[in-house]
Design brief:
Elements (H helix, E strand, L loop, with lengths): L1 H11 L9 E5 L9 H8 L3 E7 L1 H6 L4 H20 L4 E5 L6 H12 L3 E5 L4 H16 L3 E5 L21 H14 L33 H6 L4 H14 L4 H4 L12 H5 L5 H10 L10 H22 L22 H9 L5 H13 L4 H14 L4 H11 L5 H11 L15 H8 L4 H6 L8 H4 L4 H7 L8 H13 L2
Parallel strand pairs: 1-2, 1-4, 2-3, 4-5
Bound molecules: flavin-adenine dinucleotide (FAD).
Flavin-adenine dinucleotide (FAD) binds next to helix 11, helix 13, helix 16 and helix 18.
Length: 488
């Protein structure tokens, strides 16, 4: 049966030596360098490439329109990069992942593909999709080969002495550093070009029906090419890395790399980032420049959340990491939620951050923590509503990091903020935006106030400049949250 269908597939296409027998199936790894699946596909003769556009699935996963647009633009750029390697990038539109296995089989049969290569992804739905594809392809004599390109270390290989997944970041990071010292991350070399194949492929759409397109100004903030990602990485390493530990918490400064959208869709790999940081730090993982160490630590937070997502499938299914926190009596407060979503809570740093998110598709990490903690503690609103809203608006929306960040802020996650340590958003604002420059940028109505007043303007000043009164009292709402958690 297997042999017959493969034979049929072969006879459907030309049997010339130029016919690609291998396919690289791109997903969240939209690059040609440090790309094990592409390298493997090209290793055994001619290869072609495929991306599957899945609008309904992306909707179900709350992908933001700005992220979908970034992805489509990145695909156009990937197509050009692949053309330099002589590889044609085809695309299919299939609404749901559940329909991919059958469609992939049909596609492989039509094009005489014998082997499909892809890089694994850690989420549950992604793994189910791949398992189903593996089985259906195998039934037709076609091989699906998974590679690792998403993380520095293969998920499932960083375990405690007793064989468990780490639930605490510091020992996890220590173990990662040990492993990376023992077996340094090796970059997969860029494949050599094959003679170009003139094969008709489906065009990559510029936009998808039903998805709004960001403004040209928004698009210009995030050029969707690998070369831009590398330029940005290089510039960050040259100008900011060594002071990162000092600058990273100040949202008015350009103190972080802003590489997250590129990492989320794989225009640059975590391994490429690590290599660049190590090169600037004499190869040291945990000594040398404090800035480089701090940045590598952040790459390891990314790693931590991916390994957790892989190890605890419940995280992909809206479950808290700490089961006892499933009983928190979250408030049903749609007006408060709407005020938070639109940046009208009357807490300036929260509102400025939310307006940055809505305008640019990105938010500074310190502000993600402040806004998430404000929603889950001061407003006592379920973290899942915040998690979904972030995904719906972030250009770097990423299940593992977003879920990890939300569960950290809500005190429901692995190694999360203790529930009694609630950020005071006004003190955070005074500490990390002392001159109120970030506030001034996103809340122009406060720009005329003295810097000190911007963090928490008096009631009469708010009325005068047209800025809302706070929707919640910070002190009593903090206590309400602590009581709700203490009651568990
Ligand atoms: C509530 C909340 C939600 C978040 N949602 C996302 C998300 O959807 N997608 C996302 O990529 N990050 C998310 N983060 C993590 C972090 O805020 C962003 O990765 C970071 O702000 C991106 O900016 P940067 O690229 O300049 O980071 P840099 O400071 O330059 O760090 C380099 C890279 O390390 C990784 N990284 C840095 N900090 C973290 C962190 N705390 N957790 C995990 N990875 C990290 C990112 O890939 C980042 O690009 C979230 C954090 C919180 C608190």
């Amino acid at each position: 049966m297997k042999r017959r269908s493969l034979q049929a597939a072969r006879t459907m296409t030309s049997s010339s030596r130029e016919t690609p027998r291998s396919l690289c199936w791109f997903r969240s790894d939209l690059r040609t360098e440090d790309q094990p699946a592409l390298a493997a596909a090209l290793q055994n003769g001619p290869a072609s490439a495929l991306f599957i556009i899945t609008p309904a699935q992306w909707q179900a996963h709350h992908d933001a329109p700005i992220k979908v647009d970034f992805r489509l633009r990145a695909l156009h750029s990937l197509k050009a990069d692949l053309a330099e390697l002589g590889v044609a990038l085809d695309c299919l539109v299939i609404d749901h992942w559940r329909d991919i296995p059958a469609a992939l089989v049909r596609y492989c049969q039509q094009h005489g593909i014998e082997q499909v290569h892809c890089n694994r992804e850690p989420g549950v739905n992604e793994r189910r999709r791949d398992r189903a594809c593996f089985t259906e392809l195998q039934n037709q004599g076609i091989t699906l080969v998974g590679h690792e390109a998403d993380t520095l270390l293969k998920p499932g290989t960083v375990k405690t002495g007793s064989g468990d997944y780490y639930r605490v970041f510091t020992p996890f990071a220590r173990r990662c550093r040990d492993l990376l010292r023992e077996r340094p991350y090796t970059l997969t070399p860029r494949p050599t070009a094959q003679p170009p194949l003139n094969r008709a492929v489906n065009p990559i759409p510029d936009a998808l029906p039903g998805w709004s397109v960001p403004t040209p100004e928004q698009q210009a903030l995030w050029p969707a090419t690998c070369s831009h990602a590398h330029h940005q990485l290089g510039q960050f390493i040259d100008t900011t890395l060594h002071g990162y530990d000092q600058t990273r918490d100040f949202p008015a400064r350009r103190g972080t790399s802003s590489l997250s959208p590129y990492l989320a869709l794989g225009l640059v790999s975590a391994g490429q980032c690590l290599h660049a940081a190590l090169q600037a730090n004499q190869g040291e993982l945990d000594s040398g420049s404090a800035g480089a160490r701090a940045w590598i630590n952040e790459l390891l937070w990314r790693e931590f959340y991916r390994h957790l997502l892989f190890g605890f499938p419940a995280l992909s299914m809206h479950q808290p990491m700490k089961p006892e926190t499933a009983g928190v009596a979250w408030r049903n407060a749609p007006d408060d939620l709407a005020a938070w979503q639109t940046g009208h809570t009357g807490i300036p740093v929260v509102d400025a951050a939310m307006r940055q998110l809505l305008a640019t598709g990105w938010m500074h990490n310190r502000l993600r923590m402040i806004t998430a903690m404000f929603l889950t503690k001061n407003l006592l609103i379920d973290w899942r509503l915040g998690e979904a809203f972030f995904m719906q608006h972030l250009i770097d929306g990423d299940l593992a990091s977003n879920n990890g960040g939300w569960q950290w802020s809500a005190s429901t996650g692995a190694d999360a903020a203790p529930y009694f340590r609630v950020f005071n958003p006004v003190s955070q604002s005074e500490k990390f935006d002392p001159e109120g420059r970030f506030l001034m940028k996103w809340l122009p109505e406060l720009a005329t106030l003295p810097a000190k007043q911007r963090h928490d303007p008096p009631a009469d000043v708010r009325n005068r400049v047209g800025y809302p009164q706070a929707i919640v009292d910070l002190k009593s709402s903090r206590q309400r949250a602590i009581d709700a958690f203490a009651a568990l």
